[in-house]
Design goal:
This protein has 747 residues and is α+β, with helices and mostly antiparallel strands. It has a domain at 314-526: Trefoil (Acidic Fibroblast Growth Factor, subunit A) (Trefoil). The protein is 43% helix and 12% strand. The chain has 23 helices and 14 strands. The strands form three sheets. Strands 1-4-5-8-9-12 form a six-stranded antiparallel barrel. Strands 2, 3, 6, 7, 10 and 11 form a six-stranded antiparallel sheet that branches. Helix 6 (126-145) runs parallel beside helix 9 (176-194), helix 7 (150-161) packs antiparallel against helix 20 and helix 19 (631-651) runs antiparallel to helix 20 (667-687). The longest helix is centred in the middle third of the chain and has 33 residues, at 250-282. It is elongated and about 105 Å long. The protein starts with 23 loop residues before the first helix and ends in a 13-residue tail after the last helix.
C-alpha cells in the first residue's frame, strides 16, 4: 500500500471540484489495499481515547451542571430555556429516555455534586462521546477528499485524536463535540457533492445530506453560523465554475442552481424549524425557566401560570383586580408592577430631593403587593358592576394599589436612579402644593383581536400619563437597599419606543364588594381560581417568541469570567478551563489543547498565508510559473479556500464581539486549523516527492512530530481524564505556560 497515495476516497465521474483524482484502475494497479487501514486504526483509537472509563467521575463536571438538568427536564416534559437550539439536547435526552432516566431529582447546585446512584451516567455522556469519536475519521476523509495522501490525512486525524481539549470536551454532557462533528459531516458531504456530476444520482444524494447536516449543525449551536455561510460560498463558487462546462445544457444549469439553493437554504431552515417544533411539542409543562417567556406563553404550559390564569375573566373591566407584568423584564427575569408602604427617601445619595411619596417598583417575585385595581376616574366604587364596563383602547383609568389603597401617580420630579425620567409613586396627600396626577390612558399595542378591548394575557398595553404624556416604563436599573433592591419604575417619553414600556395583565379577577381595606386585602391573599380550560397558543407562535427571546439573550453581554479568553489566546493555547477538581486533592480535569499540535497548526496558518500571498504576487508578474490549469495549483487553491477560509470566518468575527468569550467558541475554527495542517503537510510532501532524500527527510520529521504529539498527550493524560492524582510539584511541572491555572493543593 502506497501510504503517500494522493487518491481521494471517492470515485468521481469527473473532477468537478478541481482537486487531484485517479481512477480505480490506476488505484488497483499501484496495489493499494481495498481497506484503508489508517482510517480504521485511527477510528478505533479515537473510540478508545473517548470512551475509556466514560462514567468517571460520577459527579457533575463543568457545564454538565446545566446540560444534565436540561436533559432531565426534557425527559419529564418540563419547559426550559437555553440560548442555543435543541437538537443535541434532544439526542442526549432520547438516549436518557431509553435508559429510563426520568425519576431522578437532578437539581445540582454546583460542579462536583454527585449524580444519584440510579443515574445512567455512561448513557448521558454517550452521545457527545460518540460524536467526539467521529471527529477523527471525518477529518481523515475530508483531507483525502481534498486530494492528499493517506499520510497527510493521518496527520489531521492525529491532531483530532490526541488533542486533550477535544477529548475533554467529548467526554461529558455538553454539545460542542456534536456541533463540530456535524460541521465536519457537512463539509465532507460538500466535497462529495462538488466532485459529482451535477444532478446525477450521487449529486442529489450528497446535496440532500449537505442540507441535512447544515440544518442539524445550526440546530445544535449558533456558533455554526459562520461555517454555514462559508459552506454556502463554497457551493455557489462550485456552481460558478460549472457554468463553464458547455456539456451541460442551460436548462440543466437552471435546475442545478435551484437545487443548490434548496440544499443550502430551504433544507437547513426546514430542519431547524422542525427541531424546534419537536422541542415545543415535547416540553409542555411549566418549569423554573418559563418566566423568561411572555405571559401568553406561560399560560399555555401545563401547571404554573396556566393553573392560575385558566378560568379568569378575559376582558379587563373597571373594578378588575390585576397584576401587571412588564413585557421586557429585568436581568432575564420577569417583573411585576409593585408597591409597598415604604416611601422614597427625602434625599438621595447624590443630594437630589424626592417627593417622599410611596414607592412604586418592579418586583421579580409573586407577591400580594403586585395587585392593582382598575378604577373609573369618575366613580368611587372599586368593584365590577353588573354588567361589567370593559376597558377600551384610549380609555382613561386610575390604578389603585390593592393593599395600601393609594393611587398610581407621576409628577415632575426626577426618578431616583434615572433623573432624565419622571418619578412614579403612589400618591400620599401631605397637604402641600403637589396635587395628585393619577390619570392614565390605556393604549393597546399590537393586539391580534379586532375589538380593541383590553384583554388579560393576550394584550400588551402602554399606560400614558395624562398630565405629562410620558409612559409608564421600567428603566432596568436596580434600586438601593431602601427599596429592597427592587427595580426602578419611571415615566418616560424616550422609553415609550421600547418593550420596557409594555405591560400585560397576567392574573385577573373581578372584584366583589368588600366593606373595607382590610377585607379587600384578605380577599387578595386568599382568592384562587379553579382551572377549566387551557390558554391556546399555536406552536408557530411559540416558535417565533422563543426565537426572539433566544436572540435577546444571545445579544446580552456576559459578565467577566475567570475562564474567559480572547481570540489571540486561542491560537497558541494560552488558556485552559478547569472542568472539575476533587475536593481535598489534586485530582482534576483541566481542558487543555495539545501544545505541539496547536503550535504547529499556528505555524502552518502563518506560513500558508505568507506563501499564498507571495505566490499571488509572483503570478501577477510571471503567470507561467503557476498556470491556472496546473493540478497542484488547483488543489492548493481549493484546499486553502476550504480550510484557511473556514478558519478565518470562524475566528476573525470574535474580535468584534462585545461579550465574554470562552474556549468553546473556538471549536469550529480549531477544526479547520487541524484540516489545514494536514493539507499543508501534504503539499510539502508532494513537493519533495520526486527527490528521494528530501522525501525521506520529510517523512522522518513527520514521524518525529507524531512522536512528540504522542509524548505531549501522555504527559497530560492525568489532567485530561482526571484518573490519577498528581503531587503539587508534578502539577507545577506541567504548567508550561504561566496562564495555565491548575488547581494545586500543597497539602
Amino acid at each position: 500500500m502506497d501510504f503517500l497515495s494522493k487518491k481521494p476516497l471517492i470515485k468521481a465521474e469527473k473532477n468537478w471540484a478541481g482537486t487531484s483524482s485517479k481512477n480505480d484502475a490506476s488505484h488497483a494497479a499501484r496495489g493499494e489495499a481495498a481497506v484503508d487501514w489508517p482510517l480504521w486504526i485511527l477510528t478505533v483509537l479515537s473510540a478508545v481515547t473517548r470512551f475509556w472509563r466514560l462514567g468517571y467521575p460520577n459527579v457533575v463536571v463543568f457545564d454538565e451542571l446545566f446540560y444534565s438538568r436540561f436533559v432531565h427536564m426534557y425527559v419529564n416534559g418540563i419547559f426550559f430555556f437555553d440560548s442555543n437550539p435543541p437538537f443535541a439536547k434532544q439526542l442526549i435526552a432520547g438516549a436518557a429516555y431509553l435508559a429510563n432516566y426520568s425519576a431522578q431529582n437532578e437539581t445540582f447546585a454546583k460542579i462536583g455534586d454527585a449524580y444519584s446512584p440510579e443515574t445512567p451516567i455512561w448513557v448521558l455522556r454517550f452521545i457527545p462521546c460518540l460524536f467526539g469519536t467521529l471527529l477523527v475519521p471525518l477529518s481523515y476523509c475530508i483531507v483525502r477528499n481534498l486530494g492528499y495522501s493517506q499520510l497527510a490525512a493521518t496527520i489531521s486525524g492525529v491532531c483530532f485524536l490526541l488533542d486533550g481539549a477535544l477529548i475533554t470536551g467529548s467526554r461529558f454532557v455538553m454539545t460542542d463535540s456534536v456541533n463540530l462533528a456535524l460541521l465536519l459531516s457537512s463539509l465532507f458531504c460538500i466535497l462529495r457533492f462538488v466532485q459529482s456530476r451535477p444532478l446525477s444520482g450521487s449529486s442529489v444524494l450528497w446535496g440532500l445530506l449537505v442540507g441535512l447536516f447544515m440544518g442539524l449543525a445550526i440546530s445544535t449551536k449558533y456558533v455554526s453560523f459562520p461555517s454555514l455561510l462559508w459552506f454556502t460560498w463554497i457551493i455557489f463558487r462550485h456552481y460558478w465554475k460549472v457554468l463553464d462546462d458547455l456539456s451541460i445544457s442551460a436548462k440543466r444549469l437552471v435546475e442545478y442552481f435551484i437545487y443548490c439553493v434548496l440544499i443550502v437554504i430551504f433544507v437547513p431552515v426546514a430542519v431547524y424549524v422542525g427541531s424546534f417544533l419537536i422541542h415545543l411539542t415535547v416540553i409542555t409543562k411549566a418549569g423554573p425557566y418559563d418566566t423568561m417567556m411572555s405571559t401568553r406563553f406561560q399560560a399555555s404550559l401545563e401547571g404554573g401560570l396556566a393553573a392560575i390564569s385558566r378560568g379568569q375573566p378575559y376582558n379587563v373591566a373597571y373594578g378588575s383586580q390585576i397584576t401587571l407584568r412588564n413585557h421586557a423584564g429585568v436581568q432575564d427575569n420577569a417583573c411585576w408592577l409593585h408597591s409597598h408602604k415604604e416611601v422614597y427617601p427625602l434625599r438621595y445619595d447624590d443630594g437630589r430631593g424626592s417627593s417622599h411619596q410611596q414607592q412604586v417598583t418592579c418586583y421579580s417575585f409573586k407577591d400580594v403587593n403586585n395587585w392593582w385595581i382598575i378604577k373609573h376616574p369618575n366613580k368611587t366604587i372599586l368593584e365590577v358592576e353588573s354588567p361589567p364596563e370593559h376597558v377600551r383602547d384610549g380609555a382613561v383609568v386610575q390604578l389603585v394599589h390593592g393593599v395600601t389603597g393609594r393611587l398610581l401617580n407621576s409628577h415632575d420630579v426626577a426618578a431616583p436612579i434615572s433623573p432624565e425620567c419622571q418619578e412614579v409613586s403612589c400618591y400620599i396627600d401631605y397637604n402641600i402644593t403637589m396635587p395628585a396626577e393619577e390619570l392614565w390612558e390605556v393604549k393597546i399595542i399590537n393586539q391580534e383581536a379586532e375589538d380593541r378591548y383590553w384583554h388579560a394575557i393576550q394584550t400588551n398595553v402602554q399606560l400614558i400619563h395624562v398630565n405629562s404624556k410620558t409612559t409608564l416604563s421600567i428603566s432596568g436599573q436596580q434600586l438601593p437597599p431602601w427599596a429592597f433592591n427592587q427595580f426602578e419604575v419611571v415615566s418616560s417619553v424616550q422609553l415609550s419606543k421600547f418593550t420596557l414600556s409594555l405591560w400585560t395583565v397576567e392574573e385577573h379577577r373581578y372584584s366583589t364588594a368588600h366593606s373595607g381595606q382590610k377585607e379587600r386585602e384578605a380577599a387578595l391573599l386568599k382568592d384562587e381560581f379553579i382551572p377549566d380550560k387551557a390558554t391556546d397558543l399555536s406552536l408557530w407562535k411559540k416558535f417565533w417568541e422563543l426565537q426572539w427571546s433566544m436572540l435577546g439573550l444571545s445579544r446580552d453581554t456576559v459578565e467577566e469570567h475567570v475562564y474567559g479568553s480572547k481570540p489571540f489566546d486561542w491560537i497558541m493555547n494560552d488558556n485552559g478551563v478547569a472542568f472539575w477538581a476533587q475536593k481535598g486533592s489534586n485530582r482534576q480535569i483541566y481542558q487543555l489543547g495539545n501544545v505541539v499540535v496547536w503550535h504547529t497548526g499556528a505555524c502552518a496558518l502563518l506560513v500558508t498565508v505568507v506563501a499564498l500571498s507571495l505566490v499571488v504576487l509572483v503570478r501577477m508578474r510571471f503567470p507561467e510559473i503557476f498556470p491556472n490549469h496546473h493540478i497542484q495549483w488547483i488543489r492548493v487553491c481549493f484546499a486553502a479556500e476550504v480550510a484557511l477560509g473556514g478558519f478565518v470566518v470562524n475566528w476573525l468575527p470574535y474580535f468584534f464581539t462585545d461579550r465574554t468569550l470562552f474556549f468553546h467558541h473556538y471549536y469550529p475554527a480549531l477544526g479547520f486549523k487541524f484540516l489545514l495542517l494536514g493539507g499543508f503537510m501534504g503539499e510539502i510532501m508532494d513537493l519533495c516527492r520526486n527527490k528521494e532524500y528530501l522525501a525521506k527527510t520529510v517523512q522522518a520529521l513527520v514521524a518525529v512530530w507524531i512522536m512528540s504529539v504522542i509524548y505531549t498527550f501522555v504527559r497530560f493524560v492525568p489532567i485530561t481524564y482526571g484518573f490519577d492524582e498528581l503531587s503539587a510539584s508534578e502539577l507545577h511541572g506541567l504548567e508550561w505556560r504561566e496562564s495555565w491555572n491548575f488547581i494545586i493543593r500543597n497539602s
